[in-house]
Amino acid sequence: MSYQQDCLLFKGKPLCPPQVAAFLFPLQPLDPAWQPRARRQPSPHTPPRLLQLELLRNAPAPLARGPDPMSQGFAGGCLDPAWWSGLQLTRHAADKLETYGIDGARLESWRAALERGESFLDVVTGSLVLVMHWEERPWIVILSKDGDRVVTTYPSDERTVTNRRGAGRWMYPAN
Amino acid sequence: MDVSSKLSAQLKWMQLRLDPESGAILFRHPTLRGIPDLVVEGDGYTLEFIGPTLLCLDIQDPSGMARLLAEPVKGKLPIGV
Q1: Which domain covers residue B72, as residue numbers?
Q2: Which of A56, A110, A141, A148 could form a disulfide with A130 if both were Cys (CB 3.0 to 4.6 A apart)?
Q3: The model's pTM
């Protein structure tokens, strides 16, 4: 008996004709030989995650930067964490973080939140904008036009972020 | 003292930081540090406050801000905008 027929049986009785079931659930029959794949074990030569980030940060710019965010294969959302962690802070952004009193472990936490940020293109300024959540509020991160440096950052609020997105000022970057 | 006079008075004592690479300008309070509880966003700049005190004026896009100035003011600036 096929998978779709199995799904539409209730207490041994069919709920609808097989043709309708095939239309509603166009699935292939289950392969009885299928087994869940074992989780891949990391290679003993792979450095720990934190060390990987440190290596990226100290790498030459093209390597640290990773792929161009505008050429990612999907629109918006979280981009490759390796790319975000390779972002350089401009002196201005470093001054801003210092003004906020963010340093040491909090700076690491801020950088980690950067990796989970959502990217947008500001259609007014043409800048790449990153919205991330850190310490229970959204933060706006303005990137340079080439997308490889943090120009500035500041805390915001949910209403502002929602309005910017809803009004169409922030668009998901094109592929 | 009205609000604009208070703002001007606070700006006088601000520390000025210039980023020659990006051209961004930061006026920040000389001693106050912390996360602002009010951020007023403009096109290319933000005004950030902790309580009634101005924490910083962040001009990330000076040319964008200069475009908002009236022509007679632009003519008096030391740089062309």
Answers
A1: 3-76
A2: A141
A3: 0.62
